[in-house]
Amino acid sequence: QFFQDIEVDPATDVTALAIAAACKASEMGVFRRREFICGCAALEVDSIDEFRKKIPELRSRVLSGESLEEVYTYTFGVAIDPPCKVLPLEDASAYWALLLPNWPLREPFCEWASQHMKGKVINRDLWSMVLKLAVEVPADLSGYDDNPAWPVVFDEFVEFYRAQQGL
């Protein structure tokens, strides 16, 4: 009801994740009283109208990268269902669509992963490294090297992608 009141669709708008991160909500889609009050204080809002006015700023801060790392890191923790410590690839892909809509390699990576990754799950380390890949490596992968710091999954994707693109 809250998201309807502020005219935000949690399925398609990264603002919902930004608000949840500001509230430090411990459960996806649920705001406990204390979490909500603390989130309102952090966002400096105290009415539905003030939330509505804050939405463009929250969205912009995530999509510009200003608060992306904070919201991105928060998202993994709240998206998994304890005691599970991994996120199904399908769910991760949906979150990447919200959080990384401008990453040119998002769709090719997700498609490749759905066909080639064993287990089709994303652990916290891989989740974190996807953000690093998305923000630090250009779309032509010219900044990517086979540095041992990158997960083997990325090496395999990059090899596949370069071969497909003739790079």
List how many beta strands DSSP finds.
2
Mind telling me the CATH superfamily name of the largest domain?
Cullin, PONY binding domain
Overall number of domains: 2
Using the coordinates shown, work out and report the CATH topology of the largest domain. Recoverin, domain 1
Write the CATH architecture name of the largest domain.
Answer: Orthogonal Bundle
The protein's oligomeric status is single chain
Coarse structural class: mainly alpha
**CATH class category label of the largest domain:** Mainly Alpha
Mean pLDDT equals 94
Work out the strand percent.
under 5%
Give the H and E element order: HHHHHEHHEHH
Strand order of the largest sheet: 1-2
Give the overall silhouette.
Answer: elongated
Specify the biggest β-sheet.
2 strands, antiparallel
Query: Approximately how much helix is present in the residues?
Result: 55-70%
Domain DCUN1: 1-162
GO molecular function, one term: cullin family protein binding
Function: Neddylation of cullins play an essential role in the regulation of SCF-type complexes activity.
Protein name: Defective in cullin neddylation protein
